[in-house]
Write a structure and sequence with these properties.
The chain is of the alpha+beta class. The protein contains 3 helices and 7 strands. Bound molecules: glutathione (GSH).
Length: about 110
Amino acid sequence: MRDTLYVLRPGFEDQGQSWFCPYSSQVIGMLTYYPQLRETVDVVELGFEKPRQPVAELIGESNQSLPVLLLGDAAPEAVPGVNIATASGRRFVSKTIEILRYLAATHGVPPPH
Ligand SMILES: N[C@@H](CCC(=O)N[C@@H](CS)C(=O)NCC(=O)O)C(=O)O
């Protein structure tokens, strides 16, 4: 499995209106700045409703806040400044700034200031 980024689909529905997720948009913004990231990271958009499958199934309902980056088999053991959590045997990064740091560190692109 490759690193897989799950984000909220822009225009998702909640409380009777449409929204976008400012956290998801930061990560999508980085992928737009550095398109080479898309060569090694799969991106999956999900709706707002819960449980958010397949994230809830893979790492649990307590970890389905988005964005979340599920790490692939080739992911490093540790990345400075990044908390890599584990649930059901899957490793993941859930804080937005740490997802940005992880992507920068593992792809040789500039890190977030
Ligand atoms: N993990 C993010 C926050 C992500 C976040 O709050 N996402 C919202 C959507 S914009 C969400 O999924 N809310 C539902 C939930 O957290 O269960 C961070 O870096 O602080």
